[in-house]
Amino acid sequence: MTTTDHSMFDMHPRPIGTAILRGWCKRCPNCGAGPMMSGYLSVREHCPVCMEELHHHHSDDGPAYLTVLIVAFLASPLVLWAHLVFRPDPLVLASVFTIGCIGLALYLLPRLKGVMVALQWARRMHGFGSGS
Hints:
The protein is mainly α. It has one domain (14-130). It has 4 helices and no strands. It comes from Rhodovulum strictum.
């Protein structure tokens, strides 16, 4: 083995649960103090507090797919329940659930992106393992 192969065994494990919780809160997965996002969905190049590099992430469409899956999973039975119990006008039902689904999607999307970036950081994927 070369010296670079030994360095892979010297890395300390990164706690996945803590990283995911910090990602959900849109915080740096390393320190938990610095903000991960510089905009609504823009991940910072590095944490302003601990200087951990965050630009290695490859989240792509994953957060969007998860958001659609979760919103549809929650909304589908609720629409059926509301229709059977309250019998609202179809326009009212569609309006209420459209607003609710859009609001939930806008809430979940940046948090799920933070979770995906934090998970990649914790598992040392896509270049996150080259540092500490």
